[in-house]
Design a protein that fits this description.
single chain, 301 residues, alpha/beta, Mannitol-specific EII, Chain A, CBS-domain, six-stranded mixed sheet, 12 helices, Diverse_CBS-Domain, CBS domain
Length: 301
């Protein structure tokens, strides 16, 4: 089914008066109140705020997707608001927030909830979508614009619904210093290795970096530190600009396509004790599914 089929004109506001995202959420909830829908709005706002504290739902590109799974509702609500002037507050890419998509679902719903979030995000990633949304004049135009994007809601939860689209990567020509810098900066334990066409080649992780300093680690475990006549990490620091990713990375990685079922991805992770699975489309790296994200998104919400 098309994402547009789940949108309602009565739940679209083409001219938000609010100046902040929090106020915009309250303004959107006001549309449900105006419909005569009786809900515990205080509980809903608390759930949305709690979710924002876990992670900022401002997506970038001018879009924000505040959402909550809460027992205060017994059906799914999708509300969309447009701020013509842009909302106040910092954003990750410096583009002011203009589009606020609010999603509320019961705690018993997981699949449709994640697919809706994923579908709305796909609409937001469409080139030129922000400019087109800001130019529309009627609510029907907004729904038609979303319909023309041909974003579909699938019957099953797929990898593309939970994957991260921004994947930190390095090339075989990068140095171990660059690897360590990226891991530290982004708090990562592993990086994708790609060629200059973004084709996935393999992975380099923190274990590989440590092994570069301790190539004879098995002997060290058996004989103890007295088997060394030098400080291995000091030696590694001396050579950090000389050791290339090509000398470290491994090709034994698990990959899936964006259309892979999340249950199958999760099963692979359990079977092989994987923290991450890369998502590729025609061998090009397009995303990553992290084990912690399956917990956070599917279970925690």
């Amino acid at each position: 089914m098309k994402l547009a089929n789940l949108l309602m004109e009565d739940r679209i506001n083409l001219d938000l008066k609010s100046r902040t995202k929090g106020a915009a959420v309250c303004e959107l909830l006001g549309m449900l109140h105006d419909e005569g829908i009786e809900l515990d709005f205080d509980a809903i706002i608390d759930s949305i705020r709690e979710r924002e504290e876990v992670e900022d739902t401002s997506y970038g590109h001018g879009f924000a997707f505040p959402h909550a799974r809460t027992d205060a509702v017994n059906e799914m609500y999708v509300l969309i608001g447009i701020s013509r002037q842009g909302l106040e507050g910092r954003t990750s890419d410096g583009i002011p927030l203009h589009i606020v998509c609010l999603l509320l679902t019961p705690t018993t719903i997981a699949k449709l909830y994640l697919q809706m979030l994923s579908g709305l995000a796909r609409v937001g990633r469409t080139p030129g979508m922000l400019e087109r949304l800001l130019a529309i004049e009627t609510k029907a135009d907004l729904i038609k614009l979303v319909a023309d994007s041909n974003v579909m809601i699938d019957k099953e939860l797929l990898a593309r619904d939970v994957m991260r689209h921004k994947v930190e990567s390095v090339t075989p020509d990068d140095t171990i210093k660059h690897v360590a810098d990226l891991m530290f900066r982004h708090r990562l334990s592993g990086l994708a290795v790609v060629d200059h066409d973004n084709k996935l080649l393999g992975i380099v992780n923190d274990r590989d970096v440590i092994m570069a300093a301790l190539p004879n680690y098995e002997q060290l475990v058996k004989e103890g530190s007295y088997a060394l006549d030098f400080e291995p990490f000091e030696e590694l620091l001396k050579r950090e600009n000389l050791i290339k990713v090509a000398q470290l990375y491994r090709t034994d990685i698990e990959v899936v396509t964006p259309e892979a079922r999340v249950v199958e991805v999760a099963a692979k992770m359990i079977l092989r004790d994987l923290r991450r699975v890369f998502v590729v489309d025609n061998n090009e790296l397009v995303g990553i599914v992290l084990r912690k994200d399956i917990v956070n998104m599917v279970i925690r919400g």
